[in-house]
Amino acid sequence: MSTEFPMNAKVRFTQERLSILTARDRQGLAGRIGVVQTDGKLIRKPTVYFPTDGTKPELRLFAVDPRQLELVEAPPATEPEPESAPRLNDGANPTDPSNLTPGTAGGEASASEGGGTLSQDELDNFFD
């Protein structure tokens, strides 16, 4: 059983956990599917949101022990990041969006495309 749940994963309480709850609490949580609202890689005990379900009100539980949860449905796969990201033209005003041009996110740009190293003078004047 995994104890790390990704954000937006659908989860429910395990039967083991439900069996030790009071009858009232068990009735309110049995069969309900919640959505993890925190990233399991960053937060050890997730926040789980249970939307309104019939007569049962919405419920948000903080710092839930992940060992008490089981995965119902993994979140949809995220789309891969684009290969190119916008970057500023050489000498352009950084606050003007029209000065953005596509560039390669992973590779190095040539000197004519704004790549290379800035001199100390260029760095000193970069934000002027």
Characterization of this structure:
This protein has 128 residues and is α+β, with helices and mostly antiparallel strands. It folds into two domains: 10-73, SH3 type barrels; 84-124, no CATH class. 13% of the residues lie in helices and 22% in strands. The protein is built from three helices and seven strands. It has a five-stranded antiparallel sheet. A two-stranded antiparallel ribbon has the order 6-7. It is elongated, with a radius of gyration of 25 Å. The N and C termini lie far apart (55 Å). The relative contact order is 0.16. Residues 103-112 have low confidence and may be disordered.
In short:
The chain is of the alpha+beta class and about 130 residues long. Helices cover about 15% and strands about 20% of the residues.
Distance between the termini: 55 Å
> How big is the Rg?
25 Å
Please describe the biggest sheet, giving its number of strands, its sense, and whether it closes into a barrel: 5 strands, antiparallel
Uncertain regions spanning at least 5 consecutive residues: 103-112
The strand line-up of the biggest sheet is 4-3-2-1-5
Mean pLDDT: 78
